[in-house]
Amino acid sequence: MGTLISVAAAQRLVLERAKPLEAERVPIERTAGRVLAEPAAAAVDLPPFASSAMDGYALRSTDTAQAPVTLPVVARILAGGPAAAPLGAGEAMAIATGGTVPEGADAVVQIELVEEADGSLSVSAPVAAGANVRDRGGDVRAGETVLEPGAVLGPAQVGALAAAGVAEVRCTKRPRVGILVTGSELRQPGEELGPGQIYESNGLLLATALQLAGAVPAQLGIVADTEEEHRRTMERALLGFDMLVTTGGASVGPHDLVRKVQAELRVEEVFWGVAVKPGKPVAFGVRRDHLVFNLPGNPVSVLATFELLVKPAINALLGLPRPLPSFRPGRLAAAVRRNPDRDELVRSTVAEEEGEAVLTPVSGQESHMIVRAGRAAALAWIPAGEGEVAAGEPVRFLLL
Asked: What integer pLDDT is reported at residue 12 of this predicted model?
């Protein structure tokens, strides 16, 4: 393996080639987790009419200037049932939360502050103009932008669009990602293991991570360690997906065939080898608009390189404005020795102490120990260097 490039350089090379996919129309009821590709404009004023912010009585503020006063209650307004006539001078109308404030009224007095008896309302103190009235268009005006491109549509965003009368939006297409797992020794969970065989976990790990990242994963099976099998499956995968992710077979062993076969299939290799632990023998390439990641075979290496490189590419394809991983500040609960040549991602648990995240490395940091990694909640970033990062020192970390 030649000179290793830094994680930052690898991320830059990936993002230079990962461009947002085209947009598609999506009904609002199917937009959960999608990414907005174009501005979404309100179809109506919100609220579409002046409405009451609480249960009470609609009135003219000027009629209460000389309070205490008594006003006749001439109508009762429910949500969805506007008054049949305007409010006259010296009158009041009972109104429910969300009800339409009648023409002529400019305030609502809440029900707890007044008394009604025999159809008359006793108001003991002046009511200010505009009190408890939600103005028409106070949230957004028809035609104004509700959300900008790049917004991830969660509950609040979908609710905002629906309230503004938006029935359909244009979202970036979800990246279709093929997953190829290499290794003749691999068997699916549930099958009986023979001598020298192990259970395959990387495919499910990647499929889960990709789905949570907003992609559409497809597991294409386990590829035996033969050139013919590699060529057949990889050629098919390169035609059918926006991205191909392989695991294993990208190092320097006699059965590491991935890079050789990809070169024959005209995949341009952008880099091979990144100064990170775990995950050093990771490769990235392109064929036309298709992105190709070759991840190591060890499960924890797959987890780390996915977070650092594959997920940012997915984010970029989706059109997210900040595709790189979001590191958080914390501090170490125990000392960690630095790697002199490579930055390291240390699997850790996270606890909160006095409002600060405290990270404790889990025992067993070898890249094959996926069960130990399954107990971790974070990856602590330990920069390359000499000596150690002492207990109590600040670190950055990624939540898993």
From this structure: 98
Six-digit token string for 7? 């994680």
Cβ proximity of 71 and 94 under 8 Å: no
How far apart, in whole angstroms, are the C-alpha atoms of residue 271 and residue 10? 7
Spell out, as residue ranges, where the chain has pLDDT lower than 50: 253-255, 367
Q: What is the pTM of this model?
A: 0.86
pLDDT of 251: 58
Residue-level pLDDT at 254? 47
Domain ranges of the chain: 7-21+174-318, 25-46+142-172, 51-134, 328-399
CATH of domain 51-134: 2.170.190.11
pLDDT digits (tens, 9 = 90+) for 104-133: 999 999 999 999 999 999 999 999 999 999
The full 3-state SS of the chain, as one line of letters, equals CCCCECHHHHHHHHHHHCCCCCEEEEEHHHCCCCEECCCEECCCCECCCCEECCCEEEECHHHHCCCCEEEEEEEEEECCECCCCCCCCCCEEEECCCCECCCCCCEEEEHHHEEEECCEEEECCCCCCCCCEECCCCCECCCCEEECCCCECCHHHHHHHHHCCCCEEEEECCCEEEEEEECCCEECCCCCCCCCCEECCHHHHHHHHHHHCCCEEEEEEEECCCHHHHHHHHHHHHHHCCEEEEECCCCCCCCCCHHHHHHHCCCEEEEECECEECCCCCEEEEECCEEEEEECCCHHHHHHHHHHHHHHHHHHHHCCCCCCCCCEEEEECCCEECCCCCEEEEEEEEEEECCEEEEEECCCCCCCCHHHHHCCCEEEEECCCCCEECCCCEEEEEEC
pLDDT (0 to 100) of residue 252: 54
Instruction: Give dist(CA 100, CA 90) in Å, integer.
Output: 19
CATH number, span 328-399? 2.40.340.10
List the one residue out of 144, 68, 156, 162 whose CA is nearest residue 109.
68
